[in-house]
Protein: N-acetylglucosamine-6-phosphate deacetylase
Organism: Saccharospirillum salsuginis
Amino acid sequence: MHTAVIAPNVYDGFERHGPSAILIEDRRIVGRVPQGEVPSHYSIERLSGGILVPGLIDLQVNGGGGVLLNNDPTAEGLAAVAEGHASAGVARVLATVISDRREVTAAFVEAGVTAAGDPDSGILGVHVEGPFFSPDRNGVHRRSSLRALDRADWDWIRRAATVPAILTLAPEQVDPEDIRKIVALGLRVSAGHTNATHAEVVRAIDAGLSGFTHLFNAMRPMSGREPGVVGTALSSPDTWCGIIADGIHVHLESLRLAFNAKPRGKMYLVSDAMATVGAREKSFELYGETIREVDGRLVNAEGRLAGSAISLTDAVRFCVTELKLPFDEAITMASRYPAEYLRVDDRFGSLLPGRMADLTWFDDQLNVTGLWRAGQRLI
């Protein structure tokens, strides 16, 4: 199939263009041309208004479509999650499982590796969040599920390394030499749910740790005498930070501070979404406990935050309307930058030739009115 998607405005992940056509062949983008120069053998889909941008990429998705992946770490569960986020305008997700029994983690990784091999699945790879965490910063992660890294874990770690993958861990809970071995396998290692000191984080960075998971949340804060995890994350120019921009997980001024502190390109948006995205039901079970959405927050019985109720498109809108970030930069934080961190930007995150034909169409009110994944229109 040869398809041309014509839009009055196009942002390709690097530059903005006027009326243009994105040319698609065999699931991939082959070029961008002025709207009047589409080859005659292409079928044309013409969009009225708005702007066409790269398909959004969310690197921290615990659930969606009514499914929490800890409860359903299967091919069917992954498909439901991907489609739940597609309904919200997100093209690709890094499926995420939080701290759990080893067999749950292993089953999730196996299903995720299989799904990542299908370009139509919407699953980029896997993100294992835990269980090597600090009990002092566990958040909603069940304390009894936290443990030390041992020999049996290397089986699922090696399997995860066959696809794009992130392992979030607490640097003080894992030996730097083990971090070095995990990084050598090809995984991205990120710090989260950690009470590490500045010195402990620096040692982990020296061993290959490259990111910070949901910055500010469940990590040692910054103080004048101890930079903690937050201060170290903001002061280390070569690391990346994922951040939840919903005005709930991080205060507006803290978001501004973070965006100003990190070099451009080193901060990307995540949703940390749970089962409620793309689903009618606004509650779900986690570790046998009911989590409910209350005033836009997902909380357990203790009132503790349990992931977020937003999609990545909500985070983009928040950045534009509340933080007053330029639309193009907010989009890049939700597409090219996460692709660069995951080292898949040669295939995803922009509308350049050779990339997968993942496209999101926003109207002038920042609502998603169209989504293409691998050239196939989904909404």
About this structure: The chain has a mean pLDDT of 97. Residues 2-53+354-377 form a domain with the Urease, subunit C; domain 1 fold (CATH 2.30.40.10).
